[in-house]
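Need a sequence for this fold. Nothing fancy.
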């Protein structure tokens, strides 16, 4: 499966979880593609933890404004009606439970909903930024991620990298299917028809509980 196809499958499915009027924070990488696939009639408000609510798309080359950047330092635009504020206010929004959904990538996630997504082994770590707050402050945490990394499982029995937060993940969406974190473990609720349950389990270190109501992955 091509990278772009994988990215589209995941971003489309995550977009279906977002509701009209939601305040949403997107992590870098794959999560930034989610707004491209929002269902018709659904408008969300993107929040950047460095102090912007109502973030718009990436500006065209030559139209960048150095006053408008996201938390990762990339150029963005602001939609009509957007609000700018200081970091204290921004984290007050996050910690106050006003972010409906946070969509993040992952290096590792485990069956308890623990997440590791800020240290890449062998590379200098810039720090976890606002991820720790977003994981504990958002109403719902969705991981938008490829199922494996060069064939190695990313969904583990227990994370081995330093954690970003413990027990904060609610849902995992990969090109293989949709999984929910429950007190009993990871439940496979939807499966991409291109794969079998056995193939999904083989690509997953953690034990998967197959839902009795397992459905084809929504498109």
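Here you go.
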């Amino acid at each position: 499966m091509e990278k772009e196809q994988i990215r589209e499958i995941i971003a489309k499915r995550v977009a279906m979880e977002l509701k009209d009027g939601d305040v949403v924070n997107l992590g870098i990488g794959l999560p930034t593609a989610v707004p491209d696939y929002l269902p018709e009639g659904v408008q969300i408000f993107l929040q950047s933890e460095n102090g912007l609510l109502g973030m718009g798309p990436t500006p065209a080359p030559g139209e960048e404004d150095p006053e408008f950047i996201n938390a990762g330092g990339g150029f963005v635009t602001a939609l009509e009606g957007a609000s700018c504020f200081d970091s204290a206010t921004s984290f007050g929004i996050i910690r106050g439970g006003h972010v409906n959904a946070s969509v993040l990538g992952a290096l590792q996630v485990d069956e308890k909903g623990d997440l590791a997504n800020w240290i890449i082994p062998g590379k200098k770590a810039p720090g976890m930024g606002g991820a720790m707050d977003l994981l504990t402050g958002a109403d719902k945490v969705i991981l938008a991620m490829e199922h494996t990394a060069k064939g190695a499982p990313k969904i583990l029995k227990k994370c081995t990298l330093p954690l970003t937060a413990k027990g904060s993940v609610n849902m995992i969406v990969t090109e293989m299917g949709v999984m929910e974190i429950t007190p009993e473990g990871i439940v496979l609720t939807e499966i991409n028809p291109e794969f079998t349950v056995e193939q999904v389990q083989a690509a997953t270190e953690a034990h998967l509980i197959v839902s009795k109501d397992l459905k084809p992955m929504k498109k």
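For context: The first helix runs from residue 3 to 15.
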